[in-house]
Amino acid sequence: MGGMRALVLALACAASGWAAAGASSAAKDSPETRQLKTWLSELHRSNEVSMQLGRLAARRGDSGPVRRFGDRVERDHRDGDHRLFKLARRRGVDVEELEPDAEQELAIQRLRALNGPDFDRLFADVMAREQQRQEQALRRAEANSDVKRLASQLLPLARQNEELARYLQRKAGR
Predict the structure, then answer these.
(1) Is 113 helix (H, G, I), strand (E, B) or coil?
(2) Within a domain: 86
(3) Is residue 17 part of a domain?
(4) Which one of 102, 129, 133, 174 is most buried, counting C-beta atoms within 10 A?
(5) Residue 18 to residues 25, 29, 92, 94, 108: CA-CA distances in angstroms?
(6) Integer CA distances (angstroms), 143 to 18, 128, 139, in order
(7) What pTM was computed for the model?
């Protein structure tokens, strides 16, 4: 009888382990998790593009304000990406590496071909658009408290960077 109880107990433990594993797998495939993965992946792409643009501006910018803004953009988005991956790890979500979209890729290529004041003008235009896109993505943060917290931390930086880009546009005569 004791052997039978041990067998039943072992089977019950194994079944609960399988159920937990199935629940964990189901949680990874839930609509909420897929939505979070999409949102984090798109935000990561925006951060990657902004860091790349910031590095370009820091190296190729004609004016000191553009070079300093490029440094700031790279630093802010690197920090934002660090926070994004921290949230992804905590939630068990794999963030996809997405290529820049066609508009972002074109902007990067055009900037690589420019120098001097032409670079500064285009950089200010591109950053104003990119920061505005990121602001919009942050405002679309789902109702999840972790995501809202991340968005509330990053949104002020995106707004400040957009304002700085708009200032550079005005300064460049745009």
Answers:
(1) coil
(2) yes
(3) no
(4) 133
(5) 10, 17, 19, 22, 49
(6) 30, 27, 11
(7) 0.76
* Beta carbons of 172 and 121 less than 8 angstroms apart: yes
CB 112 within 8 A of CB 49: no
Rounded CA separation 50/74 (Å) = 7
9 within some domain = no
Contact 71, 123 (CB under 8 A): no
Let me know the angle formed at the C-alpha of 116 by 113 and 121, rounded to the nearest 5 degrees: 85
Query: Is the four-CA dihedral 61, 83, 35, 157 of positive or negative sign?
Result: negative
Provide the domain limits for residue 68: 30-171
Task: Give the SS3 label for residue 168.
Answer: helix
The pLDDT tens digits of the residues spanning 6-19 come to 434 443 444 444 33
Number of domains in the chain: 1
Residue located via tokens 């189901």: 26
